[in-house]
Amino acid sequence: MKNKFIATVITYITIHASLFCQPSFQKKFESTFPVNTKWRVHNNKLTIAIAGDLQELAGIDLITGKLLWSFSFKDKLGIKKVNDWNLNKDNNVVTIKYDSDIKGKEITKWINAHDGNILDENAYAEIKTNKKKNNTPLAEENSKKEYKTTKKKGKIKKTSLKHNGNLIQISFDKKLLTGAIKAKNTKATITCSGKSNWTKEIDVQVIRPLCSISFSSSMFGEDFLEITAYKDKLFVLYEGITVMDINSGDVVWSAGFSNSYFDFGIFKSVQELGRAAWPLPHEDFVYVVDLNDYERCIKKLDINTGALIWRSEKFSKGAVIPELLIEKNILLVKCGGKIEKQSYIPGVEGRPDVCKKEFKYSGDFGLKALDINTGKTVWQTFNNKELEDKFSSQITNMLVYDSKVYIGSDKNIFCFESSNGKVLFKIKASDWKIGKPYEIWDYDEQLIIQSEKGLSSINLLNGSQNWVTKTKLCLSSFFVGDAFFVINGKSEEEQNAFIRLDINSGKILGNITKTTYPYFTEDGEEFIKYDGQKVLRYKTQ
């Protein structure tokens, strides 16, 4: 009894001491720009920062904090102001443009960001030439999938993907969707360059975020049009799917489905996004969630023809199926999850429009395992009294590891045998006193559990506890190099504080507040932040 008491006290201290022993990150320097910092920018290696306006500029060494140079355009060039300036983040050259004496013509000059000296054309050309020698054309890189979205004048959206020596881009004209709320037909242009070269135009149905009607889409998300690739197939995802041959650009097949929800009202409209998982390609088939009210099922389709192989049993009305995974001959289906909800209230009597974006848990929470060959249910958590858990209020993501599937409810973390649903272990997460689990992931044979107010780690194989750390809030986490960070700001709307945590021990290595936009070195060991006229650099442990 005494030993149990001592163990309990030690566990309590281990869990709670982290709240009161959070060291602040060590500040390396704090420097002040001697100019008006209307704009601030730094290079990719985080060694130089430039700040200023259209009348003056200054440069600071981000390693030492030393002021490198400062000048006004009037003193240096005899002009009142420039039209524009920007820093090339790779070659550390500042380009400035200003009006010449000839009406309608501009003069371009280049400034060495290291010392503030003006470069002549020959010196600038030499820097450009040296940089080009070190570059590899994008389409020639044999890299994993990479997504990039850009906008031009708010009209064109482009999404790009690198896959097996090809650069694939899809674009459409956002003007065609003005005023659209539900999915609207539009044309998308797809271009492939690299091993294969072609351009094709296809019909798509694009969903706009409800609140982007009146507000910037950067606040409420981008229009839903994405591309992904599997082997020699390109998948164009919208309110439907088009499958294309990457080698030729030919459309192999397409299908429509409805996986968003919209409720229009005179006084209030509501849109729900993220209700369905992306199509899951596997071998010669693709598994698609179709939440059309007359379907509400998962379909197995032939990847080459789109022919239906089987459809699952029908899900309940309002179902949310946000994740699919395959483990051997089992299709694992997560039911219920966190979705995005946007509400729009039009302004009346001079009052402005009101938009609100929130993430909420929705659907019937649980896990189903389907036979990959027939679509029949092999096992499920629903109505399973032996679990002593109804998954009543929320659910984590799934994780598959060595023929096991891990998932968390609002109270417990489960490890199931994926083939038959046998419970290999069950951990009572509510005992950790760090809120409800919402995300799980693996790291070096650890299962990391992110909960509302902290993180915990258990052994992947047997569920034994490694550590539990309270973080006040745990809004999200990320790695920079091998350094692991947890955002623990005041709320989803105020993500302005973070800590560094040792992922192997759970020890908090440092923290900082009032820092919304940190810029990290590649290894995560240091970062800079801007604060008005100041730039500051910190160590993260």
Explain what you see.
By secondary structure, the chain is mainly beta. It is built from 4 helices and 43 strands. Strands 19, 20, 25, 26, 27 and 28 form a 6-stranded antiparallel β-sheet that branches. It has a 5-stranded antiparallel β-sheet with strand order 10-11-12-13-14, with no helix packed on it. Strands 1-43-42-41 form a 4-stranded antiparallel β-sheet, with no helix packed on it. The longest helix has 19 residues, at 2-20. The protein starts with a helix and ends with a strand.
Estimated helix fraction: under 10%
Major pleated sheet = 6 strands, antiparallel
CATH fold description of the domain at 259-380? Thrombin, subunit H
The CATH architecture of the domain at 259-380 comes to: Beta Barrel
- Stretches where pLDDT is under 50 for at least 5 consecutive residues are 1-20, 135-156, 176-180, 214-220
Averaged pLDDT: 86
User: What oligomeric arrangement do these chains adopt?
Assistant: single chain
Q: Please work out how many helical segments DSSP would assign.
A: 4
**N- to C-terminal distance:** 40 Å
Shape descriptor reads: globular
CATH class division of the domain at 259-380: Mainly Beta
SSE class: mainly beta
Radius of gyration: 27 Å
Strand % is over 45%
How many extended strands? Answer: 43
